[in-house]
Amino acid sequence: xxxxxxxxxxxxxxxxxxxxxxxxxxxxxxxxxxxxxxxxxxxxxxxxxxxxxxxxxxxxxxxxxxxxxxxxxxxxxxxxxxxxxxxxxxxxxxxxxxxxxxxxxxxxxxxxxxxxxxxxxxxxxxxxxxxxxxxxxxxxxxxxxxxxxxxxxxxxxxxxxxxxxxxxxxxxxxxxxxxxxxxxxxxxxxxxxxxxxxxxxxxxxxxxxxxxxxxxxxxxxxxxxxxxxxxxxxxxxxxxxxxxxxxxxxxxxxxxxxxxxxxxxxxxxxxxxxxxxxxxxxxxxxxxxxxxxxxxxxxxxxxxxxxxxxxxxxxxxxxxxxxxxxxxxxxxxxxxxxxxxxxxxxxxxxxxxxxxxxxxxxxxxxxxxxxxxxxxxxxxxxxxxxxxxxxxxxxxxxxxxxxxxxxxxxxxxxxxxxxxxxxxxxxxxxxxxxxxxxxxxxxxxxxxxxxxxxxxxxx
Length: 459
Description:
With 459 residues, this protein is α/β, with parallel strands linked by helices. The chain folds into four domains: 120 residues, CATH 2.40.50.140; 145 residues, Rossmann fold (3-Layer(aba) Sandwich), CATH 3.40.50; 119 residues; 46 residues, no CATH class. The chain is built from ten helices and 14 strands. Helix 4 runs parallel beside helix 8 and helix 5 packs parallel to helix 6. The model has no long low-confidence stretch (mean pLDDT 83).
C-alpha cells in the first residue's frame, strides 16, 4: 500500500512542486472579475478569462497585490490610463505562482502594465466606432434639425451629481430671464450599472418625445476615471437612433467618449450645456427681432407706396371733377334760360291774341248798333254777355298757360322730386343711351351726384 500523506503534507508537496516547476514570474493577461482592498491595504482580485462570446468564463484564479506594492501600482496605473482598477477591466500583470495550504493557488502580483490596458480600451473603443460607421448610424443624431426654442429638456443624470445641480442653477439663473422646463430621468452615471441605466432612461424619454425638445446627458465632477463607461455600444446606438437632439456634458476635458462622438453636440461640462441652450434661445430671440424689423419695414414701404399712389390719383382726379361739374352747371343754366325764354314768348303771343279779339268785338258792336237801333238794347246785352264770357275764357286760358309755364320751370320740376339725368353733358331721354360702366350725372333740387351704371333695361 502506498505511503499515506496528511492533507497538509499533500498541500506542501503541491506547493514545493509548483515552486520547483514555476520558479520565475510571468506576464499574464486577464480580466478583473472582482476587486477588494482590505483595511491593511492588501488588494485581492478575482481574475478570469472569458470565451470569445465575452460571457462564459474558461479560467479563473485569485490574485493578490500586497499593500507594500499596491499603493504604487494603483497610483501609477491611474495616472497613465486615467482609469481606476475595477471590474471588467482587462490588465497585463507580472505575477508569481504561489500555493498556500489554506488558501490554495493564487498569483502574487508585483506589477501591472498600464499600456496594455490603454491598448485594450482603445481597441474596444475603435471597434465600437467602426461598428457604428459600418451600420451607417454614426452621424444620425447630428443630422437632426435643432429646435428653434429648446425650452423642454429631458435630463439623464443622477440627482446627487454636482454637475446636475450646476446645470439647473446655471439654466435658471440666465441673465435673459428665459424659462426652461426640465425633467430629470435619474440613473447611475458611473460603474457597471451605467450602460443599463442610461439606455433605460433614453427609452423612457423616447416613449414621450412629444413633451421634450432636446435631451441632455450630464455627469460632471470627478476625474476621467469613469469615461470608459460611456464607451458603450448600447448607449451610443440608442443615441444614434434617438428622434431628438442629444447634448452631452459628461465632464471630460481631454478625451471624448463614443457617446460624445455620436451626440448632436458634445460639450465639456454641464454648465457648458446650459450655456449652449441659453445661447440657442438668445439666437432665436434675435432672429425673431430681425424678422419683426423686416416685417415692419416691408409694411411701412407698402403703406408709403399706397399713400403716394392715392395722392397721385387725387391730384389727377380733382381737376377733372371740377371741369365736369363746371360743364354740367353751364349746360343746366343754358337749359333753364331757354325754358324761360319759351315761356315769355308764349305769354306775349297770348296777350296779342286777346287784344285782337277785343278790337273786333267792339267794331261789330258799333255796326250792329247803327244797323239795328231797335234791337240795340238786346244786342248790347248779348254783346256784353258774350264779351264777358269771352274775356273770362281768355283770362282762364292765360292763367292756364301761365301755370303751364310755371310747371315747366326746371327749378319747380326739381322741387317736386324729379331729377335731371345727363351723361357727358347730354340729357338722357332713354335708357338705351347709356352703357354699363358709364358715369352719369343726376341733378337734384339741392345738388348733383355722379353714378356708375351697373345694370339697366337694355344692358
